Amino acid sequence: MPKQTFYNLEKDKKDRLIEACLEEFSSYTFTDSSINRIIKNSDISRGSFYQYFENKEDCYMEILGMIAKEKYELFKDVVSDESHGVFDDYLNMLKQVRVWMEAQPRYYKIGLLMQKDDSDFIRKLNEKNPSMNDYFIYLIKKDQDKGFIRKDIDPYLLSEVLTSTSQKILLELFENKEYDLMIEKSKQIIHLLQNGTKVL
Amino acid sequence: MPKQTFYNLEKDKKDRLIEACLEEFSSYTFTDSSINRIIKNSDISRGSFYQYFENKEDCYMEILGMIAKEKYELFKDVVSDESHGVFDDYLNMLKQVRVWMEAQPRYYKIGLLMQKDDSDFIRKLNEKNPSMNDYFIYLIKKDQDKGFIRKDIDPYLLSEVLTSTSQKILLELFENKEYDLMIEKSKQIIHLLQNGTKVL
DNA sequence: AATACATATGACAGGGGTGTCATATGCCTA
DNA sequence: TAGGCATATGACACCCCTGTCATATGTATT
What we know:
Two copies of one chain form a homodimer. Chain A is mostly helical. The first copy, chain A, has helices at 4-8, 11-25, 35-42, 46-52, 56-75, 86-103, 105-116, 120-128, 132-146, 155-176, 179-195.
């Protein structure tokens, strides 16, 4: 946890510091990020930095906390309507992530970079965060009960297919921002998953 | 390209050097790998290393070249039988990668680490390597001609679904080595893709 | 033996990084 | 005004890294 001095900081200085951290952590992996660059870009002395944070990890955690908070603020009002099935929720999820991505591309980038870092510290963080998988599984089971999805299909398996394809789509969306195209693609994938490839 | 001195090297020394390189490059990203560790582990002096290679990139390329060669040697005799459809080839691919993975886990790991490195050098290398995508697309089109797959399905799309799921499966296979389980899983995915999720 | 060439070596220059600490500055209070 | 506390600061110790270069050693040829 950051020291009290960090929270006591005057707005301008704190903002400069946070800005520099965001820039750094959205440009480099946690491992490759550098306190040196952060203090240079925020024009804060080395000693001061360590007056605010224990170390780089402490600083990173604070930034992640901030991001989580903002994410919560952005989406707390989006009360999910009664689900119309996993596939519908799949599309809704895509829409939602897009809002987040456009609102805070750097935050999203930080998430992407976290997936690339193999350090113990980041690995542990990633483990704690439950993936979309669990939620999808829950929805798939509900769909099976309602008779939308065949019961012989393993919910876990289908959920994995959904997450791995959605990850790819989200990455493309992040890289070239063709939202309508990605929605179209997702709809096609859904159609494919619903109807299969077989010629009847 | 490595300098002539590298190829002139006596077997033992050369082996030690290559061994240390493999260990390094399968433990660290190209960016994070260190010549220092390589020379320490192979007991070769700093000066000598630069007598063999221009720099780290040169060294890395040589190792990649070696890997490609061995891969070719291992699979050159595996003449692919006449294709029985993409899905069959999907399974065959899995079997083949497994052979490679078990034969040379470190080589496989190097490939995985390459995907995590964002440096220009590695990005350019990755771009050159054509993915399985292209091959899958080709097979899917053939299946469509033969009437195995509906013609209204976009081959590119299906190929993307296949590659993203297979990547996940290969990663799991690499991490916990439960081959039979992974084959079973793949078969289920194929079944899912062929028949869809709809209740008929 | 003398020369010439190939190879080996580690000290060195110059870059980057982290965390600490003695000291300086500002500020509040007795 | 003097003391005490919070905060600021950058030099410093110590670690990592890469690429170079003068020098040393080995080896073959004349």
